[in-house]
Design goal:
single chain; mainly alpha; Arc Repressor Mutant, subunit A; Four Helix Bundle (Hemerythrin (Met), subunit A); 11 helices; 62% helix
């Protein structure tokens, strides 16, 4: 009986990135040329804008394009790209000299991470409303206060955001759940795609909107209202996903 070779499943964004990289290598897109608008490109490729955004970030990491906020995505001159050892024509075959688990974390989809957070963090908020000690409530309120850039301009938005969400997870009273939440945030911090998405497709307006959504989460927790806390956190994470994927604004 003849054996069959196992087929390695690639993430869709990598297939899209490979296809665009192939067009660039073939000269269909010249150095310095701007790629078609995001919506147009997504329609041509018949993919969601979230998938296209992941592909564009992967292309930038590979040195094929430069994402210029507010201007578009431009093809990088081959002579300005990283050396071949760090940049293969097929992005899906580009691997760093590191452990497989770390390499996988660097390529992890930001939307998969947001989806995972949406599975766990609303329940953390509900449990925090029920179980938080006075000290833990104070820690949540302090973490939320520090999200105001005027209060702590020296720290990154990511650090403040993580501190608040971890304070809520800790206040849930479930150490295992809090550990899961911290691990997912570790993956977000490690993922090159997640950082690229945050850098290019989320701005200060989105951050202020998120702070307003946090207001509703924190007020529900402080009011000891688990139903409202769960709904507010779920809405917040779904709204972040929508903004990051381009479903809210162009």
């Amino acid at each position: 009986m003849s054996s069959l070779e196992a087929v390695s499943a690639q993430r869709l964004y990598r297939l899209i990135a490979d296809q665009i990289a192939g067009k660039i290598a073939a000269g269909d897109f010249a150095p310095g040329q701007r790629l078609p608008a995001e919506r147009e490109l997504a329609e041509q490729l018949n993919v969601a804008r979230s998938t296209l955004r992941e592909a564009l970030i992967a292309l930038e990491i590979g040195g094929f394009v430069e994402v210029r906020v507010g201007s578009g995505v431009f093809v990088v001159d081959p002579k300005d790209r990283p050396p071949p050892a760090a940049n293969d024509a097929r992005l899906g075959e580009t691997l760093e000299a590191e452990s497989p688990s770390l390499a996988a974390a660097r390529e992890m989809s930001p939307f998969a991470l947001l989806e995972t957070r949406a599975l766990f963090e609303p329940e953390c908020a509900a449990l925090a409303a029920q179980n938080a000690t006075p000290e833990q409530l104070a820690a949540i309120e302090e973490a939320h206060r520090k999200m105001d850039p005027k209060q702590s301009p020296e720290a990154s938005d990511f650090a403040h955001d993580r501190a608040l969400h971890e304070a809520i997870a800790t206040a849930s009273g479930n150490a295992a759940l809090a550990s899961v939440v911290s691990h997912v945030w570790d993956l977000c911090e490690t993922s090159s795609l997640f950082k690229g998405l945050d850098k290019h497709f989320l701005d200060s307006t989105d951050y202020r909107t998120a702070v307003g959504e946090h207001d509703r989460v924190v007020s529900a927790i402080v009011a000891r209202d688990p139903v409202r806390a769960r709904h507010a956190m779920s809405y917040h994470l779904l709204a972040i996903t929508a903004r990051a994927s381009g479903e809210v604004t162009d």
